[in-house]
Write a structure and sequence with these properties.
- 33% of the residues are buried.
- The chain has one domain: Rossmann fold.
- It has 249 residues and is of the alpha/beta class.
Length: 249
Amino acid sequence: MKVLVAVKRVVDYNVKVRLNEAGEPDTASVKMSINPFDEIATECAVQLKEKGIASEVVAVTIGAQKSLDTLRVAMAMGADRGIHVVSEALIQPLQVAKILQKIVEKENPDLVIVGKQAIDNDANQVGQMLATYCNIPQASFASKLEITDSSEALVTREVDGGVQTVAVKLPAVVTADLRLAEPRYVTLPNMMKAKKKPVETIDVSSLGIDTAHRLKPVSYSMPKKEKNGQILGSVAELINKLQTEAKVL
């Protein structure tokens, strides 16, 4: 079984993005890292290989030359090889799905695992659109994945009403939720080994996909600052505040 995982280079989740003088998000000098949900997807794929279920894990990323660092992280976690679709321009979700469709057609994987969303746009669209373009089943928001045999997978999903388990025929697209796997720590020796693993480079222009943006931001703004809380000394003081300032009593 071959497993394909998609990873994206995003602003690190610990970084608080601010606006620059032009009123746009300033990402030029902030720390970047692998998208957390994609990291979970990669861990899940590597675990399938360690269990003897998967024979090969292929990681693919789309982005500028610096995205190769993200690909190396996926390979340091255990992916066997990488595919880097080079694009200096930002690629939006619809085009990402179309590009990944080309990679799926080329690699013919038995299972595709992607993060449920990227934390830079929270779009939650690529997995669903990819399954549609490839005309294969999908199971989104997976918190558990079991391969029953070479032709079917059981996916546990956390939904509003509780937990749902669905069976999907393979090949299929699965989008990873937070509880699908606990990503391993990437050690320096494994990062050094990852540099020796093969990476195929594909220029996005060679895929024949229109990468023009369909979505345009209207404006950006920082979240409004909330008022600081107050520590009161007595119940009487609390009641007085509710009567005079909040006017709820």
